[in-house]
Write a structure and sequence with these properties.
Shape of chain A: flat
Distance between the termini of chain A: 152 Å
Largest sheet of chain A: none
CATH class of one domain in chain A: Mainly Alpha
Largest interface: A-B, 25 and 27 residues
Number of domains of chain B: 2
Strand content of chain B: under 5%
Order of helices and strands of chain B: HHHHHHHHHHHHHHHHH
Shape of chain B: flat
CATH superfamily of the largest domain in chain B: Ypt/Rab-GAP domain of gyp1p, domain 2
Number of strands of chain A: 0
Distance between the termini of chain B: 14 Å
Strand content of chain A: under 5%
Oligomer: heterodimer
Structural class of chain A: mainly alpha
Chain lengths: 1116, 293
């Protein structure tokens, strides 16, 4: 508690008038705040502030550090909940956020924001609403990413408040609504600037409803006329707008400027990057451009504003903005300014677009005018007004005629003085100054660079703080400073580069004349002025048919007046009044939407201020309060409250504007930094260029010296070369000499050698000669000996020759004798020889023949042998082929055989089947016939005898048939089978064909099977055929059939035996039953045998017996 | 030379590297191109390599003598065979031994009986053990060969071969089996002996039926390739290999009945591997047959 008491004390001490105490206490609080993290202290501070509105507390609260922000926000949230403390809480919030605390990003998460939004949605107090909206607008650029969650809240608030502006709930005073409208207008700008797509879609959906249509027409639509199409509407999307990435790289002031960029309202709009006032607005409402330019001045005038150019405009512009007021005296510079800004704005499209001809009046303005501007601007690349201030400085500096150089700090004051001065002089001076300055600029293109670097920025800085110094309300001053330069600069722009070329210089003399007699030079001026000022505002409106209407007299007329300042102000004032009336009268439908809520508010304030000043003037009393009481009783409380509230609202507005100004200042600072950097870079560039030049010069010098050195070097080289060649030639000569000498010595030496050799040879020869002499002597002696010998031999030879001759003669003699004696024998010999020769030849030819024959025969033999071999080969092949074919045939044969085998088997099966069937048949028939048999036994025996003879002959034929049937493969077994299984029936069958069917003996005979059958059969066959022909005469087929039987009997004897035995069994039993019959049958059997007697029956019988036995055997 | 040039020169390496059967089809085709088929060579080939399934039926028919070695007479002979088949079948139908409802295998059996003259008096006669063998083989062949004529002839000739050519050697196989099992795994043999299962092994199934019904047809036909081409010894190795493959299970079984029962119904999934291993084993013990040419 003590601490609280202490706190209270401290708080009260905060407001103490003693500065040191206050500082101390503030320090204590700050210390506490830094040490204490609890919410208590902050809460107390807030409460205290809400109670007392104490400035030091506000200061402490606005500078709260991080951990306390939450408490502060919570506390404010609490206060917001209570209606009573809502307004102060809101204003505190406004104070806090306007300072942009480092924790501002937390605002979006704080519960304060929703409660603020809620408050804005539900509260009905206009003051709270206006304050809240302003706070919200201030807050929005700081927390752009919060739009995602609260966007619809924002829009709802906008919708609600805009409808408020129209519906005007009863208890709200109009004045408040003006404020509210202004703040809604600001909100509109902010929302449209930040979230265009979402906002437009909200507008679309919200105002498509019928009940909102009025609001739209009345409130929203005029607002929309003050914005241009947001580029995001084209390129962006709803989601993209809400993307936090979009906002991340934008600072708060960036957002603010972004929003300002899309505004067409000159009070709101911001024109960086060479953007000027949007051409449409200025073209459509030229008077409004002036009007707008005026509005801040009006404000300033109220607050004794002394912004740089206020003097010009204030007096003049009040005329425009407050039509209800009596027109004030027009100062000529202001008219000048008035006429010029529109020009500038007119020029802006061409500057922006870089077009060569202005779009409005192509014929009047030489196309090359626009060119310099754009180039100029591009080359400078500075914010427009920036340059203008420098130009203005020039002009001001060039006004030494009246004042000499004016210190920059005194500029506003000086300007104010200027305004009050005589217009003609002023005009002339200024014009002269401007022209001079402009000629300077144009003649020396680079010159402006220097002054700009010199005092541009200082001047600029000076001017800004200069405004608020004299201003009580700094915000409006700042605004004025930012807006004001625009028209001014554009005017100077316009004049700057273009006049020297085209119009200004020629005007100069007439201008001078105009100073003395302004009215006289009207005609001359007209011609000139048309040239300069054709793209004036007054010309365009009629073209567009907006604003001034079509009833306007020749569009240039009033312009001329304007151009001639002396008479101008009368004319212009008259004209403008007319126009305003007209505009008011006829264009109620098109003008009203063009006035922005801010303007309305401005006008309202101005009116209030005027009224106030009038009253004050009347009263001429020092203080207001006194004034009221003096005036007659206490002031009406309602009025006071209204006024207070209004004051509050104004304060809020002011704070909001101040915030905007700060943002702009931030922006400006950044831009300035860029400018400075650019300038520094440029200078750096220049310095670099200089260095480059110097280095190039150095290089040149070095190059020259290098050339010299090279020349000297080449000279030396040449000298050296000549020396070298000389020396070389000397050397060569000497060498040549030396070689000669060497050769000579060589020659001499060889000669010496030769001589020595010769001497040696001669000595050798001497030795040889000596030895030869000795040798010859010896030979000589020998030869003499031989000589003597040969002489003796010669003598002998002569003797012998003689003997030879003699002997030859003798021989010849003998030969003669011989020839005469043997002449006939030679013939015989010859004959013999010839015969011999012939014989030889004959033999030879014979031999030859023989040889030839031999050859041929040998060849033949060879041929034959080869033939033989071939044949053998062929034979082999044939054999092989045969073998092949054999194998092939065998293969086929085997297949056929197997097929045949199969067939055989099949037939066997068939036979078996047939037999089986027969067996069954017989079995059935037998039982029947056995009974009949008893009765017919005797009869049958008789018949049997008779039929036997017939049967014999029949059986022969039957047998023959059978024999012929044997050719078929399947036939032979059949009779055999029949003979076996049903032989009796066949045997009987033979008879039965002729005789009666009943044949008991045959049946019985069947019991004894083949025996009987064969006997009958054989007996029958025996007559025509040979004995035993049955088995043997069957040839191959018969044999086969036999084999078949045998095979079958072999393979199936078991089964057969079964059936046969069963048959015999039954028969036995029957026989046993009927012995009488049994006894008879043998008789019958034996009976017929002898009865048909035949010549060779005995033999047949034997054979038959044989066959029988054989057959029986085979069967068995 | 022509034969060599037609063959891929890499074929030698294929076998070295271990790819078997790459060139076999081609060489078989070359063999089958000869006008007079060299049965010797075909035998050797079939013993050495597994036959490609597309030529199996043809090779079997040639080896079993159903088709002569000459291509020219193939058609004619086949016609004979077919007619014979039809005749026999017709005869059986006439004597009402078979009807359309009779299973094909029994039809084959009756046909065989008819052809060999052993047709019983009535179809309802009890089956002889050799008929059971026939039926098992017929069932297997029926799976392998589609055409019924071929099928019948192959069954008939195969059975004939078993009955004639291998009449002597088949009873020797159990002994050979014991011998090779001893070589491969004496422990298993001793186990069988101790269980006294050796004599009760399903020899009938193995050797008389040539594993028909024991191995799936896809594996069986590889075994029968060897049997058809004249080697019944392969059966022994297949049996040995079966025992080796299921050694663990056989070792786990103690009673002869169980072992027999198990061996009669061995799982079929590993049969291919068994056959492959058996053929390897056979090659290992009996050596790879070489072309006699």
């Amino acid at each position: 508690m003590a601490q609280q008491a202490n706190l209270g004390e401290l708080l009260s001490m905060l407001d103490s008038p003693v500065l040191s105490v206050r500082d101390e206490v503030t320090a204590v609080f700050k210390e506490n705040l830094s040490s204490d993290r609890g919410p208590m202290l902050v809460n107390t501070l807030v409460d205290y502030y809400l109670e007392t509105k104490s400035q030091p507390v506000l200061h402490i609260l606005t500078t709260l550090q991080e951990p306390h922000d939450k408490h502060l926000l919570d506390k404010m949230n609490d206060c917001m909940g209570r209606a009573a403390s809502r307004l102060p809480a809101l204003s505190l919030l406004g104070h806090v956020i306007r300072l942009q605390p480092p924790w501002k990003h937390k605002l979006s998460q704080a519960p304060l924001l929703p409660s603020l939004l809620k408050c804005l949605k539900v509260d009905t107090d206009v003051i709270v609403l206006t304050t809240g909206v302003l706070v919200l607008i201030t807050m929005l650029p700081m927390i752009p990413q919060s739009g995602k969650q609260h966007l619809h809240d924002f829009f709802d608030i906008f919708g609600r408040l805009s409808s408020w502006c129209l519906k005007k709930p009863g208890h709200v005073t109009e004045i408040y609504l003006v404020h509210l409208h202004a703040s809604v207008y600001a909100l509109f700008h902010r929302l449209y600037g930040m979230y265009p797509c979402n906002f437009v879609s909200f507008l679309r959906s919200h105002y498509s409803m019928k009940e909102n249509l009025d609001t739209f027409e009345e409130v929203v639509r005029p607002m929309m006329e003050h914005v241009r199409i947001h580029p995001e509407l084209v390129t962006g999307s709803k989601d993209h707008e809400l993307d936090p990435r979009r906002w991340k790289r934008l600072e708060t002031h960036d957002v603010v400027i972004e929003c300002a960029k899309i505004s067409l309202d000159p009070a709101e709009a911001s024109y960086e990057d060479g953007d000027s006032v949007s051409p449409q607005v200025s073209a459509r409402f030229p008077h409004r451009a002036a009007d707008v330019a005026a509005s801040p001045y009006v404000d300033m005038q109220n607050s004794c504003g002394s912004a740089t150019s206020t003097p010009y405009s204030s007096s003049r512009l009040t005329l425009f903005s407050t039509p209800g007021q009596p027109p004030q005296t027009l100062s000529p510079p202001s008219t000048r300014l008035l006429t010029e800004p529109p020009q500038a704005t007119l020029w802006s499209p061409s500057m922006v677009c870089g077009m060569t001809t202005p779009p409005t009046s192509p014929g009047n303005v030489p196309p090359d005018l626009s060119h310099p501007y754009s180039k100029w601007f591009q080359s400078w690349g500075l914010p427009v007004w920036f340059f203008d201030w420098s130009c203005l400085c020039f002009s001001l500096e060039e006004l030494p005629g009246s004042k000499g150089s004016v210190p920059l700090s005194d500029l506003p004051g000086f300007l104010g003085d200027l305004a009050s001065e005589e217009d003609s002089i002023e005009k002339a001076k200024e014009e002269a100054a401007i022209s001079k300055e402009l000629s300077e600029i144009t003649t020396a293109g680079t010159e402006p660079l220097v002054p700009r670097g010199g005092f541009d920025s200082p001047f600029y800085r000076d001017s800004l703080p200069g405004c608020p110094r004299k201003n009580h309300s700094a915000a409006s001053g700042a605004q004025g400073a930012s807006v004001n330069p625009e028209p001014l600069n554009s005017s100077l722009d316009k004049l700057g580069p273009d006049t020297p070329k085209q119009a200004f210089t020629p005007i100069d003399p007439p201008c001078g004349g105009a100073n003395q007699s302004p009215a006289g030079s009207r005609e001359r001026q007209t011609a000139l002025e048309t040239d300069i000022l054709t793209p004036s505002p007054c010309k365009i409106p009629p073209q567009r048919g907006v604003g001034f209407g079509s009833g306007q007299p020749p569009p240039y007329d009033h312009l001329f007046e304007v151009a001639l300042p002396k008479t101008a102000h009368h004319f212009v004032s008259k004209k403008t009044k007319e126009l305003l009336k007209k505009a008011k009268g006829n264009a109620e439908e098109d003008c009203p939407p063009s006035t922005s809520p801010a303007e309305v508010l401005d006008r309202l304030i101005q009116q209030g201020a005027d009224a106030h000043s009038k009253e004050l003037n009347k009263l001429s009393l020092p203080s207001k309060s006194v004034d009221w009481t003096h005036f007659g009783g206490s002031p009406p409380s309602d009025e006071i409250r209204t006024l207070r509230n209004q004051l509050l609202l104004l304060h809020n507005q002011l704070l909001y504007e101040r915030f905007k100004r700060q943002q702009h200042a931030l922006r400006n600072r950044r831009l300035l930094r860029r400018v400075i950097r650019a300038a520094a870079l440029e200078e750096h560039n220049a310095a670099m260029k200089d260095q480059l030049k110097l280095q190039e010069k150095d290089i040149q010098i070095w190059k020259v010296s290098m050339q010299k050195e090279q020349a000297r070097y080449s000279q030396l080289q040449e000298q050296r070369d000549t020396m070298v060649t000389q020396l070389h030639s000397q050397i060569r000569q000497l060498q040549h000499d030396r070689e000669e000498f060497y050769n000579q010595s060589q020659e001499l030496q060889t000669k010496l050698e030769d001589c020595r050799n010769m001497i040696a040879e001669l000595r050798l020869e001497l030795k040889k000669a000596n030895s030869k002499v000795c040798h010859t002597e010896l030979l000589l002696s020998q030869v003499s000996q031989k000589l003597s010998n040969s002489e003796s031999v010669q003598q002998q030879m002569e003797f012998l020759n003689r003997q030879l001759l003699v002997l030859g003669e003798v021989n010849e003699l003998y030969l003669e004798q011989l020839q005469s004696k043997h002449s006939d024998t030679t013939k015989e010999v010859e004959m013999m020889k010839a015969a011999c020769r012939k014989e030889l030849e004959k033999n030879r030819s014979h031999v030859l023949q023989q040889n030839q024959r031999l050859d041929t025969s040998q060849k033949r033999i060879l041929e034959l042998e080869s033939h033989l071999a071939k044949k053998d080969h062929l034979l082999l092949e044939q054999k092989k082929y045969l073998e092949d074919v054999k194998v092939q045939a065998r293969g086929q044969l085997q297949a056929a055989e197997s097929r045949y085998e199969a067939q055989k088997r099949i037939t066997q099966v068939f036979e078996l089947e047939i037999l089986d069937l027969y067996g069954r048949l017989e079995k059935d028939g037998l039982l029947k016939k056995l009974e009949e048999e008893k009765a017919e036994a005797a009869e049958a025996a008789e018949e049997r005898l008779a039929s036997c003879k017939d049967g014999c002959s029949d059986s022969v034929t039957g047998h023959n048939e059978e024999a012929s049937g044997h050719n078929g493969e399947t036939k032979p077994p059949r009779p055999g089978g029949g003979a076996r299984g049903g032989g009796a029936s066949r045997g009987g069958g033979g008879g039965s064909e002729l005789s009666t069917p009943e044949k008991p003996p045959t049946q019985r005979a069947g019991l004894f099977s083949s025996r009987w059958e064969t006997t009958v059969g054989e007996s029958a066959t025996s007559i025509p055929t040979t004995v035993g022909s049955f088995p043997s005469s069957k040839s191959f087929l018969g044999m086969k059939a036999r084999e078949l039987f045998r095979n079958k009997s072999e393979s199936q004897c078991d089964e057969d035996s079964v059936t046969i035995s069963s048959l015999s069994e039954t028969l036995k039993t029957e026989l046993g039953k009927d012995p009488g019959a049994e006894a008879k049958t043998p008789l019958h059997l034996d009976g017929p045998q002898p009865s048909p007697p035949s010549p060779d029956s005995v033999g047949q019988l034997h054979i038959m017996d044989y066959d029988e036995t054989h057959q029986e055997h085979s069967e068995g | 030379m022509t034969e060599d040039s037609q063959r891929n020169f890499r074929s030698v390496y294929y076998e070295k590297v271990g790819f078997r059967g790459v060139e076999e089809k081609k060489s078989l085709e070359i063999l089958l191109k000869d006008d007079r088929l060299d049965i010797e060579k075909l035998c050797t080939f079939s013993q050495r390599f597994p036959l490609p399934s597309m030529y199996r039926a043809l090779v079997w028919k040639v080896l079993l003598g159903i088709l002569p070695p000459h291509h020219e007479s193939h058609a004619q002979v086949m016609m004979y065979r077919k007619e014979q088949y039809c005749d026999v079948l017709h005869a059986l139908k006439v004597v009402r031994f078979v009807s359309d409802a009779t299973p094909q295998v029994e039809v084959y059996l009756h046909m065989y009986q008819l052809e060999s003259g052993k047709l019983p008096r009535s179809p309802s006669f009890p089956l002889e053990p050799e008929d059971e063998v026939f039926l098992a083989i017929a069932k297997a062949v029926e799976e392998m060969v589609e055409d019924s004529v071929d099928c019948y002839w192959i069954i008939r000739c195969f059975v004939n071969q078993l009955n004639n050519k291998y009449r002597e050697s088949l009873p020797q196989l159990p002994k050979a089996f014991e011998q090779y099992l001893n070589l491969e795994d004496s422990r298993l043999l001793s186990h069988l002996k101790t269980c006294s299962a050796l004599s009760r092994l399903p020899y009938d199934l193995w050797f008389k039926r040539c594993f028909a019904g024991c191995l799936p047809e896809s594996s069986l036909q590889r075994v029968w390739d060897k049997v058809v081409s004249g080697s019944c010894k392969i059966l022994v190795f297949v049996a040995v290999e079966i025992l080796l493959t299921f050694k663990i299970k056989v070792m786990a079984l103690n009673s002869a009945e169980k072992i027999t029962k198990f061996l009669e119904n061995i799982p079929q999934d590993s049969s291919d591997a068994i056959v492959s291993k058996a053929i390897d084993l056979w090659h290992k013990h009996c050596g790879t047959p070489v072309h006699s040419a």
